[in-house]
Amino acid sequence: MNNLKLKIFVVxxxxxxxxxxxxxxxxxxxxxxxxxxxPDWFQDAKFGIFIHWGPYSVPAWSPKGxxxxxxxxxxxxxxxxxxxxxxxxxxxxxxxxxxxxxYSYYNFGEMFKAGLFEPDEWVQLFENAGAKYIxxxxxxxxxxxxxxxxxxxxxxxxxxxxxxxxxxxLVGELTTAVKxxxxxxxxxxxxxxxxxxxxxxxKKRFVDEHFLPQIKDLVTKYSxxxxxxxxxxxxxxxxWKSKEFLAWLFNExxxxxxxxxxxxxxxxxRKHHGGYFTTEYEAEAPEFKRPWEECRGxxxxxxxxxxxxxxxxxxxxxxxxxxxxxxxxxxxxxLDIGPDARGNIPVIMQERLLQIGSWLNTxxxxxYGSRLWNNSFQWSLKGEKNYKPKQHYLGxxxxxxxxxxxxxxxxxKELFFTQNxxxxxVILPQWKSEITIRNFKVSNKAKITxxxxxxNLKGQQMGNDFVISLPEYKPxxxxxxxxxxxxxxITK
Length: 492
What we know:
There is one protein chain. The protein has 492 residues and is α/β, with parallel strands linked by helices. It has 2 domains: 30-366, TIM Barrel; 377-491, Golgi alpha-mannosidase II (Immunoglobulin-like, Sandwich). 29% of the residues lie in helices and 17% in strands. It has helices at 2-23, 30-33, 40-45, 71-77, 90-98, 108-111, 119-128, 170-178, 197-201, 203-222, 237-240, 242-251, 316-328, 347-363, 397-401; strands at residues 47-51, 133-139, 184-190, 226-230, 260-261, 277-280, 292-297, 331-337, 377-379, 413-419, 423-428, 434-437, 448-450, 455-456, 458-462, 465-469, 486-491. The strands form 3 sheets. The protein has an 8-stranded parallel beta sheet with strand order 5-4-3-2-1-8-7-6. Alpha-L-fucosidase is responsible for hydrolyzing the alpha-1,6-linked fucose joined to the reducing-end N-acetylglucosamine of the carbohydrate moieties of glycoproteins.
């Protein structure tokens, strides 16, 4: 009898495991791939750090309002695009005046030394910033690989960090340092390369002989937690064979059980298929049905741009309010830094990260692991209309105009909201003696606390609204970073 029960149990487990395997055998269709769940850690993380670093970090220059990591494209195509009015020859003129007319972009590979790169120091900074994940550009559109890879050399010369420039495996070193911590390691990878011979002459061969083996090598060597695709927009997913690749990634790769992907896998795919959705220099997102992430720089450029001055960088208050705005609408902020060619993270970027980290150290309870409330934010009743900017790439000044520095006649976001299983959180862009949360009812047993000082606050139900009184503001009770935004916790 016991043997019979044991046999039944074993057979049952085999059937169960077979069903489980069948359920996780993803097919190369969007219907199947989109059904793969995105792990909770990603939605809980809320704050990540993007790192753009490569040969473009050598010239590290472009006009304000443009991306310096596009230096090669601006140079060779004699064009320019971004926020501002450009003639198109600005990069060409700068390059010829600085390096000479016949100086090739590919010479920057040898100049990209990364001699000051200390991965453990980088990671310590990221931990102090309160980041829960990072995404490093393993290869940007110029094709330079930050790891030893044979496909990087199939253009006819070596073009990877182990053979050209640093003579180091930059992806491997940073991955090793990150994996000593609780931070998740992500890798950005550009599907296309501007001037690869096969991309220009035979895109099918480029996909089969370059893209697919190279991206599989990246995943196999480093087993990243995130694979952040980009440079997908010139071809449909079918031509990229993205769905076949993703089926391999989810079914067979070394990262199949934990990897997270974004949505940039072919022309027209973004914000429709893949993993989490991505925005870039946008305001709060519409109501996506999937987790999402906004990426942007501290200034404007993603790659280090020595042409940007202090006034071009967002203030720490603007960056914290940007984070709050995005998190209140259910998203993550992937905030970019651009190290210089030596591997040094510019001091102003370090300072901003530490300022954000200080604020999160006090108020992270309202950010990490939070989810949408009924309303993401509350507009003031004053003003004729809500402020929505018109420019293509939205700078950090937008959130300031929407909160503390409004244009005449416009309303402001006076409160932001998040919640977790234990409490609601109300986030104030500026100090007030009293706030009114419209259409919100609170339990008589709720405890109301100001996170910055742990002071208990008093609240009163006024019909459908709830009014909270704040104490007299005493500067000595607050640290400098508390001023970026104040958080009130209301227990459930």
